[in-house]
Input
Amino acid sequence: NWDPAGQGDDALSRVLRSKRLHRKLCEGIADLVVTDGSDGVVLDFGGLRFGDGGRLVRLAATLAVRLRTMGKKIFIGVPFFFPGLRGAFGAADIDWHRLHEAVDGVILQTHHPLGKTGRIFLSVLEEGIRAFCTRVPPWKAMLGINLGALEFDADTGSLRRLTYQQAVAAAYTSGSRPVWDEERGVLAAHCAASDADGGERALWIENARSIVRYLRWVERFNMKGVFFLQLGSEDEHVWQAVPHWIKAWRHEPDDPGI
Output
């Protein structure tokens, strides 16, 4: 996985725009798949810039040809495009037909932070998912789900991933009890920053109730499946609430996604 945190805003763009780095990345991924004996690869890149959509599709197509000769699968993540003119403009940068024809599954990156604070209203989220499912056929469409939590620092504008347990502990330590945010469909807590300068932090905490809502969207739009991020960071009640037909495979103990 390529998590956008700490990579720099133009990290992916630099790779896609350089033939040398593009080739090096393809070779490295192919060698890794052979070395660890996995069934395939998930390209979960963050930070796609406008103008690089075509380059991302070419990367996926190039890798797909190479991996399929080895009997491996390839899945690729794409950004969540907000409803409206700007989102439509961004989505138009990607050749969706060529992309879904090349890969085994296309993952909508709803498991990455969305919006300035990392969390958006459910109505906007659902509209974006519906639009995605008009661009990608259901047998290729997948939904990304973050099983942990996000911390948004209002002063710095920074976002940090936390486990469910860490987020709940941080909220109670600050004297804030997590409550259900109906508009965003997540447990939320607002507490003081930990440094001496004060400020406020927002905690968005996924729990069994919020995860089930994502899975209902998967069923409603007849999507291929889901991609879980931060496995092991979740509310322990998640697996009691989700349908029993959901199975998860994890290749490495330190792999954050499945």
User: Anything to note?
Assistant: Residues 19-36 form the longest helix (18 residues). Residues 1-7, 248-253 have pLDDT under 50 and may be disordered. The two ends are 10 Å apart (CA to CA). Strands lie at 40-43, 73-78, 105-108, 141-146, 149-153, 159-162, 179-181, 186-192, 200-205, 225-229.
